[in-house]
Design goal:
two-stranded parallel sheet; about 5% strand
Length: about 60
């Protein structure tokens, strides 16, 4: 999400919906490269505690 500067509540709902579908299929969702405002929204909304957040794509892939 490195290029993302803003995320709305609709965007958060889409992420949550996708995560539920992935969980049902034994999948998972992680995020990387979150910028200041997007990271703040993830923290305030609780998404930071629900999903792994990594500094880089490489770190996210290595954590699999």
């Amino acid at each position: 999400l490195g290029g993302l500067e803003y995320i709305s509540s609709a965007g958060l709902r889409s992420i949550l919906s996708t995560a539920k579908k992935l969980k049902a299929a034994q999948g998972s969702l992680a995020f990387c490269n979150l910028s200041g405002m997007v990271l703040e929204v993830f923290n305030v909304s609780g998404f930071a505690s629900m999903f792994p957040i990594h500094d880089s794509l490489e770190a996210a892939l290595a954590s699999k």
